[in-house]
Write a structure and sequence with these properties.
The protein is of the alpha/beta class. The chain contains 10 helices and 11 strands. Helix content is 31%, strand content 18%.
C-alpha cells in the first residue's frame, strides 16, 4: 500500500546486486533498489532480490526488456511482472504482455544511442508509459538534459537512477517519492498513480570519477563482453525460444530458434548460425543456400546473421 506522509528514496535501476551494493545503498540513504540485470530470467531475479532485502533496504525485482531485433531494439524497464517476459519480441507484443500483467512500464535512457525510445515514440505511446528517465548517472550531462527536456515537454512522470553496473555507483542518483514505499506492490502503485516525486543526485568529485569508471565499464561491456555473449556463449536465457517460455512467444519472436546442430557452422571465414532457418526448414545444406542466395558476409550477431539468407518473424 502507498502511504502519504513519508519520503522514500528509490534507486530505480541497478544491474548489480551483492553485499557491497547493499552496504553502499544503505550508507547513501537509499530505501529501495530496483534490480534489473540484463538477460536474467525473472524467477532468478526475484530470488536474488529477496535474498538481499531486509528491514533497512527493499530490493524490488525488475526486467529491462529488449524489444525488437538489434536494428529496432527498444529497452523498457518493467516492474510488477507476475510471469516471465522474454527479450527479442516485438515492441507491441511486449507492451501487450505488460498491460495484461498490470505492470509498470518505464523508459530508461530515452533517445540514447539506438536502444531507446525516440521522442516520436515517447509521444505516440505516452498514455501507455508510467515514467521516463530524466537523469542517469552513467550518461553525460547533455544526454540527461536532453532527456529531461523531452520528458517535461511531453508531461511524462520522471524518474532517475544510478544505472549502476558497478557497486560504487549505487545511490549516486535516486527518485524521491513523497510517500512510504515498503513493498514491490507499493512501488508499482506509486509509479502507475503518478505519485509526486523528485529526481535527486549526489554532488562532488566522486560522482564525476565514478561516471568515468562506469563509462569505461560500458566500453568493456560493448566490446569483449558482447563478443563473448554473442559468439562464445550459449543462447541468452531470456531468448523467447528458451524452454522457460513454453513457446508462448513463438509467433512474436523477432529471431528464429537456434537448434544445437546449427549453432555454429562456418562457410569460408563466416560463421553461420541457426538463424539461417531456411536451411533448417527445407533440409538443404546451409552452405549451398548461402552461396545460392547471395555472397556470404561477416555475421555481426548470431541472432541476425549478416549473410541475410532470409528474415522470418517466429521460432520453429
Amino acid at each position: 500500500m502507498v502511504v502519504s506522509g513519508h519520503r522514500t528514496r528509490v534507486d530505480t535501476h541497478v544491474k548489480v546486486l551483492n553485499r557491497q551494493v547493499v552496504e553502499t545503498a544503505k550508507a547513501r540513504g537509499i530505501d529501495v533498489l530496483v534490480y534489473a540485470p540484463h538477460f536474467v530470467q525473472l524467477p532468478d531475479i526475484r530470488q536474488r532480490a529477496a535474498r538481499f532485502s531486509d528491514d533497512e533496504l527493499l530490493v524490488v525485482p525488475g526486467r529491462e526488456v529488449f524489444s525488437g531485433d538489434w536494428r529496432t531494439r527498444r529497452h523498457l524497464l518493467v516492474l510488477g511482472l507476475t510471469e516471465p517476459v522474454p527479450d527479442f519480441i516485438t515492441y507491441e507484443a511486449a507492451m501487450a504482455e505488460f498491460e495484461r500483467q498490470n505492470a509498470a512500464v518505464l523508459v530508461p535512457h530515452p533517445r540514447f544511442a539506438n536502444i531507446s525510445l525516440t521522442r516520436a515514440e515517447l509521444s505516440a505511446h505516452a498514455d501507455r508509459l508510467h515514467a521516463a528517465e530524466t537523469y542517469n548517472a552513467k550518461l553525460l550531462n547533455w544526454h540527461n538534459k536532453r532527456s529531461e527536456s523531452i520528458v517535461e515537454e511531453l508531461q511524462l512522470p520522471a524518474f532517475g537512477s544510478s544505472y549502476a553496473h558497478l557497486s560504487g555507483t549505487v545511490g549516486e542518483v535516486w527518485t524521491q517519492f513523497e510517500t512510504t514505499i515498503d513493498t514491490e506492490t507499493a512501488l508499482v502503485e506509486a509509479l502507475k498513480a503518478r505519485v509526486p516525486r523528485t529526481v535527486e543526485r549526489r554532488h562532488g568529485l566522486h560522482r564525476h570519477l565514478q561516471k568515468v569508471v562506469e563509462l569505461s565499464h560500458l566500453a568493456y561491456e560493448n566490446t569483449w563482453q558482447k563478443l563473448d555473449r554473442i559468439f562464445l556463449s550459449a543462447t541468452e536465457p531470456t531468448h523467447p525460444c528458451q524452454m522457460a517460455y513454453d513457446g508462448r512467444f513463438d509467433d512474436v519472436s523477432v529471431y528464429w530458434r537456434m537448434l544445437p546442430s546449427q549453432q555454429s557452422r562456418w562457410v569460408g571465414s563466416t560463421r553461420l548460425t541457426g538463424d539461417n532457418q531456411l536451411a533448417l526448414r527445407d533440409g538443404s545444406d546451409i552452405a549451398a543456400i548461402a552461396s545460392r542466395e547471395l555472397s556470404v558476409s561477416w555475421c555481426f550477431s548470431p541472432l541476425d546473421c549478416g549473410c541475410r539468407i532470409v528474415t522470418l518473424p517466429a521460432c520453429l
